[in-house]
């Protein structure tokens, strides 16, 4: 039997993700400056390609990738925890399902379908921070999830719990907190460079929250001394075992 080890440095991964986020934010801001300050809306398609507020472009793909990676790590932790904390494994799997949905929503903007109905319910005018109406069910959903996961969070190691809460604060602060400010601003002043800056901050917080979550999950796996094996067994052939090590 042959053994192969894969060593994963979570700090290097976090640094790489942070670098990509910074580059995407910078590229998006440059594109918006070209659009609003110099009147160049296209620039060979680059403005849309790197616009963090756009759809089906590089920032969208990167965010979906982050959500997918987080979901995979959550599944790994859930599988490993079934032998140690059977009652908690369901929470890890629920989180994994949640991030699969978040990735799907990021790709196809499902939450945007709630904007028009919620605006009608609230009167359509002078909505202020609720201009993007989906934030109302979004806030209620976050509160419900906080109650559902509260006891689970309290059972986690202190370091993991703190970093998970920090990652959640970054993500929710971006997708809901900044969305409230964005809605109030765009209703009052319309879409301009200032609005683009606000949206860029929103998307940067969301991506940073996901990157922080990935770093936290890798750290949790390391602290739990989880061993993940990928074994291929075949007649008259050696087995392949991969043991990831998290630094």
Mean pLDDT: 89
- The Cα radius of gyration reads 21 Å
Strand order of the largest sheet: 1-3-2
The major beta sheet can be summarized as: 3 strands, mixed
Would you tell me the structural class of the helices and strands? mainly alpha
Number of strands: 3
In DSSP terms (H or I, runs of 4 or more residues), the helix count works out at: 8
Q: What sequence of helices (H) and strands (E) makes up the elements?
A: EHHHHHHHHEE
Beta-strand residue fraction: 5-15%
How many structural domains?
1
Keywords: Membrane, Transmembrane, Transmembrane helix
Organism: Massilia suwonensis
Transmembrane segments: 12-34, 58-79, 91-110, 130-150, 162-181
Protein name: Multidrug transporter
List the helices and strands and how they pair.
Blueprint: E1 2-8, H1 10-36, H2 46-49, H3 58-81, H4 86-108, H5 115-122, H6 135-155, H7 158-189, H8 193-223, E2 232-234, E3 237-246
Parallel strand pairs: 1-3
Antiparallel strand pairs: 2-3
């Amino acid at each position: 039997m042959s053994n192969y080890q894969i060593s994963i440095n979570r700090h290097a991964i976090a640094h790489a993700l942070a670098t990509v986020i910074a580059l995407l934010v910078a590229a998006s801001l440059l594109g918006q400056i070209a659009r609003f300050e110099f009147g160049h809306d296209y620039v060979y398609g680059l403005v849309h390609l790197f616009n963090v507020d756009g759809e089906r472009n590089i920032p969208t793909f990167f965010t979906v990738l982050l959500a997918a990676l987080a979901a995979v790590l959550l599944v790994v932790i859930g599988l490993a925890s079934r032998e140690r904390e059977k009652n908690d494994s369901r929470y890890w799997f629920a989180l994994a399902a949640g991030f699969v949905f978040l990735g799907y929503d990021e790709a196809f903007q499902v939450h945007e379908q709630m904007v028009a109905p919620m605006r009608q319910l609230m009167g359509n005018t002078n909505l202020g921070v609720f201009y993007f109406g989906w934030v109302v069910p979004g806030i209620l959903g976050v509160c419900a999830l906080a109650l559902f996961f509260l006891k689970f969070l309290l059972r986690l190691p202190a370091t993991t719990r703190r970093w998970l809460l920090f990652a959640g604060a970054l993500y929710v602060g971006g997708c809901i907190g900044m969305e409230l400010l964005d809605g109030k601003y765009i209703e009052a002043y319309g879409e301009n460079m200032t609005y683009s800056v606000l949206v860029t901050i929103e998307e940067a917080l969301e991506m940073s929250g996901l990157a922080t979550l990935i770093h936290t999950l890798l750290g949790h796996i390391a602290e739990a001394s989880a061993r993940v094996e990928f074994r291929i067994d075949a007649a008259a052939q050696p087995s392949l075992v991969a043991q990831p090590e998290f630094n």
